[in-house]
């Protein structure tokens, strides 16, 4: 039996400010199979971002374990965590995070330059990815020349540059209007199909959940399986 891409077991995380303790996770547990598109829903402040950060090795849990692609994230050294994030995990945030002075193509190729991908291979990968997200004709435009939805598509293409096994998307439609936002989840579905990547997307937008294979509800620090909503 193939091991799941992500295994989360009894994950806990509490934030402390002086004498005040705010539990974010109280024993969250779930698995995500390879090639799945899983949505995590919950109200703002429910801990979705914290959960994604723990899966991606950006934060350290107080208790429990996270396994990604068979490896225990909690046992990795700083160098190993860096390699995991660079080579195996892609990130998409609601704020896009694009570099304003660079074109769409140049933003997408940044991860490829970091790993010294040969120029011809780099150019072809950028071309393929911009085509995948529907921006082949916008390669030379800078972020300020693109709409919010187009900037998010560039961010998705950039996250896929190094062929990650896992894509983590944190409220990727949070700054988009409803019509533009509705196009992002089908795009992530296309990414699962064409790139063979596993996707975990955090959102509280009910309209975006219908594209997911599974939906997990995060409430009071624990996750529970919930039915995928019917479109309409």
From TrEMBL:
Does the keyword section mention Metal-binding?
no
| SMART domains linked to this entry | AAA (SM00382)
Gene Ontology MF, one: ATP binding
**Which keywords fit this entry according to its UniProt record?**
ATP-binding, Nucleotide-binding, Transport
Q: Cross-referenced Pfam families, in alphabetical order?
A: ABC_tran
ABC transporter domain segment(s): 6-232
Q: Which SUPFAM superfamilies match?
A: P-loop containing nucleoside triphosphate hydrolases (SSF52540)
**A GO CC term attached to the entry:** plasma membrane
Under the heading InterPro entries, the entry gives: AAA+_ATPase, ABC_transporter-like_ATP-bd, ABC_transporter-like_CS, ABC_transpr_LolD-like, MacB-like_ATP-bd, P-loop_NTPase
Q: Which PANTHER family match?
A: ABC TRANSPORTER RELATED, IMPORT ATP-BINDING PROTEIN
Name of this protein: ABC transporter ATP-binding protein
Q: Which organism is it from?
A: Actinomadura soli
